[in-house]
Every structure is written in C-alpha cells, then in structure tokens.
Amino acid sequence: MSTQYTNTVLMVEPVAFAYNLQTAENNHFQQNDFADSAQVQMLAYAEFQAMVSLLRSKGIAVLILKDTLEPHTPDSIFPNNWFSFHGSKAAIYPMYAPNRRLERRACVFELSKEAGYLVDTIKDYSSYEKQQHFLEGTGSMILDRVNKIAYAALSERTDKGLFHTFCSDFDFFPVSYVANQTVGEERLPIYHTNVQLCVADNYAVVCLDAIDNKAEREHLVTTLLQSGKELIEITEVQMHQFAGNMLQVSNSQGETFLVMSQTAHRSLTEQQINKLESYNKLLVAAVPTIEK
Length: 292
Known about the structure:
This protein is α/β, with parallel strands linked by helices. 30% of the residues lie in helices and 25% in strands. The N and C termini lie far apart (38 Å).
C-alpha cells in the first residue's frame, strides 16, 4: 500500500553550488546577492550539512550522493527535478535549463539499490527536451500518492501534454492550472508547483491567491477536499517566503514531520503553526543561501 511520505531522503552534496543564470530566466524567486562564488558554496555546504544532521537526528534516513566539479551543475542539490521513484519504477524528466540536464547520473539508481530500493523499470522522458517540452519532476508536480492524484501548475517548465502523459503512464489523475506571482507590474506563472502547494497525508498547504482563474481555483479546492485533505491556506506573500515549499516525511518509528525552511516558518501565523503541529512535528532548517 502506498503512503504519502517517505522515511528515506536522497540528497546531493554541493561542491560548486552557485547562482544559475539559465534558470533565473523564469524562476523569479532567485536573487543574485553574492559576488563571491566560493562564499556561496561554503554557505550552501554548511546549510546542507545542518539539514542532513537535523533529519538524521530525528531518525530519518538520508542517502548522500556527492556532486562532481565537472560537469558544472550549479543546481544539482535539487535532484527531485530530474528523477522520481514510484515503488519499483522510476521516472527521468526533461529539464528546461541545458546545464541542469547534465545532472542526470546513473549512480543515483545505484545508490538507491544499495539502500534496498530496487528499480526494475525506468521511464525516461528526457527526449522531450528536443521538442522544448519540459516536466521537472516533483518540482513540476505534487503527487498525492495514496489517492493517485497529480497536481501541476503549468509553466514553461511544466508542459500540460507531457504532464498528462506521465499521469497515464503512472496511473495518476491529472489536475492542472496556472498559478501566478506578481513580478513588477506583471502576473507571471510561478516556475514550480512545489512553491505553491504541499500535499501531506491529511492536509494540504496551498496558496490559492496565486490562481487567478476562478474555475481552476475552485476545481483545485474541490479535488483536495474530496480527497480528504484539510486546506491550510497561505498568502502570496507567504508563498514568496517559501511557505508552500514543504515536505512531509517520517522516521523509522513511524513519526511524521513536516520539513520547512526557517524563512517559511517565520512567515507563518501562530494559527497556521498550531494547525500544522496538530498533524505532525515541524522540522525547521535554516537554508537562506540555498533559497536565494
């Protein structure tokens, strides 16, 4: 039987983390506040190690794959964008930025095999890059693995047709919409669904203010409620503080946790925090360099 959360997390250790000009084209959350790339790597490495320690201190298993200096892949610490696991099956995804396509490494599956996660079927969608069709893993899609529903905010990085292909291949019901953010005086699509929506076992954290189309907003709400989720709404301001970018995990004892950044936690109201804590413990990690 599927569960919504995992007790094992795979993380890529940074060796040359940096601001990525290629992804900044449509990721309006990025900020280039650092002049010294060595400083960025040093700070990101410290944040990474602190996150690993935090997860392991709660009994959550962490598999670590160290990045390589060549080829240079500044965003390699976000591997969920290029692969996902589904029991004995896995998917490999087409990436918008050319330098992110270099992140795909077979050793990910070797590491997972060593940890006891055996994959016998891999569905590779990376060839869609030639057609300029992209779908960036569980950044582009939020998966309700128990109810078999996939949610996607459409953008340059999340192609609707390819999203439906994935859902057909992996037996998910597709729910898509456009989620926007205000950039200057424009409303532009957010780059990834996982900054706007988090689906946990019994609740969902969602920024409905980002969905300008009333019918799409109502369809998302109805689907979430009918699947048994309590909605915990966040504002667009909170979304920009990464309050939608959360992940529910468990440990070997079956305790559940909601992992979030310190920036996200600080943006939440006392009422929102109390509601989240009524479902699971909160794990708060300081990752300001990585967020920027």
